[in-house]
Design a protein that fits this description.
The chain is mostly beta strands. 6% of the residues lie in helices and 51% in strands. The protein has two helices and 28 strands.
């Protein structure tokens, strides 16, 4: 690979993090990133939700998503998807005259329309939205139960029938296109968390895939991402003892309760970890193989071995991963022929320890990553960045 940085047309500012890119998808003009951009004096935060548009990754245009946002408020984009029918951005508006979820739509990424927030999304947690040829598919949970929605235009959304789909307590975390339709994955809550999957030929009607081991058993299992590739399907998620997960959730509940009593702002964003990152392989989406779990038995991986799968994409006949090697402490690129064994791409390296990556796509023989340079003084992202890799 040969690498180069592409310029981003943002103004220098005194506060790191006002301009940032949080994610990247293919679609629209070619590539669409989303995040925030400086709007000094517009609201108390001096920034606004924004999209970053590019045909190839070489030249970028920054567009504020501020349609129907009061001058003293700010917009935020949490999820974005691009399809042949346009682009949708799901997020919210806050914090002076209103504080509520929001939805925008655009045909070209430059002119945006704020839509009425769908009644179907009220009380829902949207985990992922993707663009498909006939519109959009969103997945997540509604009132604590797994849920999937579809839309032809981003405006009108229809929820999949929960009985036909076999939804229950839990969440749908991921959705992707396959050779014969769509596949969604997540988890269900019973005696333990069990990995779960659903299939659809049209994105409207969904049926539960009957899964057994290794997704169902005594351990808690959560499927967080699924990637179709030439060899079948590759999935990643989390697996661990039920008691460990329960203790984690109890700890979060206690911390949240203490925060409500003391009004401590730091407790508004809480997290704790349980289990180990786990990967699975399948040739047909029905029978799955659990791959060896790193750190199992307390044995550390080898130096440089891939241990964090931030982004995994199909690339040619194999897979490309942007993650982190054991002991490296910075983003690295790995490739795999079979989804089991990963090898690092040889130097020159694309990233440095003070850089972070928030989005990654494979476009033919080009790799495009977005993120930023970390500001060592503030500990937050500095200027947004784009890296373009060309396969020789």
């Amino acid at each position: 690979m040969t690498w180069r940085r592409a310029p981003i047309p943002v103004q220098a500012n005194d506060t790191p993090g006002l301009d940032r890119i949080d994610g990247l998808v293919k679609g629209g003009p070619g590539l669409v990133g989303w995040g925030r951009a400086e709007t000094r004096g517009r609201n108390q935060f001096n920034d606004m939700g924004a999209v970053y548009l590019s045909a190839t990754g070489d030249r970028w245009e920054v567009v504020l998503v501020d349609t129907d946002v009061n001058p003293v408020d700010a917009s935020e984009i949490a999820q974005l998807a691009a399809s042949p029918r346009g682009i949708v951005a799901i997020g919210g508006v806050c914090c002076t005259t209103e504080e509520r979820p929001a939805l925008w739509r655009s045909l070209d990424g430059r002119s945006w329309q704020r839509l009425e927030y769908p009644a179907e999304f009220v009380g829902a947690s949207i985990a992922r939205v993707i663009g498909v040829p006939d519109g959009f598919i969103a997945v997540g949970s509604l009132d604590g139960r797994a849920a999937i929605w579809s839309s032809p235009d981003g405006s009108e959304w229809t929820a999949a029938d929960p009985l036909d789909a076999g939804f229950g307590p839990g969440q749908v975390s991921a959705v992707t296109t396959t050779a014969d339709g769509y596949l969604a994955a997540g988890w269900t809550d019973g005696e333990t968390y069990d990995g779960a999957m659903w299939r659809s030929t049209d994105g409207l009607d969904w049926t539960r895939v009957e899964l057994e081991a290794p997704f169902v058993g005594a351990l808690d299992t959560v499927v967080g991402e699924i990637v179709p590739w030439a060899g079948g399907l590759w999935a990643t998620g989390n697996e661990g003892p039920n008691a460990e997960r329960v203790r984690c959730e109890q700890l979060l509940g206690a911390m949240a309760s203490a925060g409500r009593q003391t009004f401590e702002p730091a407790t508004t964003a809480l997290s704790c970890g349980w289990g180990l990152e786990t990967q699975w392989l399948s040739s047909d989406g029905i029978s799955w193989e659990r791959l060896p779990v790193r750190w199992a038995g307390g044995v550390a991986p080898l130096a440089g071995e891939l241990i964090e799968y931030r982004f995994v994409r199909a690339g040619g006949p194999g897979l490309v991963a942007l993650g982190e090697g054991f002991g490296d402490g910075f983003p690295s690129l790995f490739v795999s022929d079979d989804g089991r064994e990963w090898r690092p791409l040889p130097p020159p390296r694309a990233f440095k320890p003070d850089q972070s990556v928030s989005g990654f796509v494979v476009d033919g023989r080009r790799l495009i990553a977005v993120g930023g340079d970390w500001d060592p003084n503030s500990g937050v992202a500095g200027s947004p960045a784009v890296w373009i890799g060309e396969a020789r």
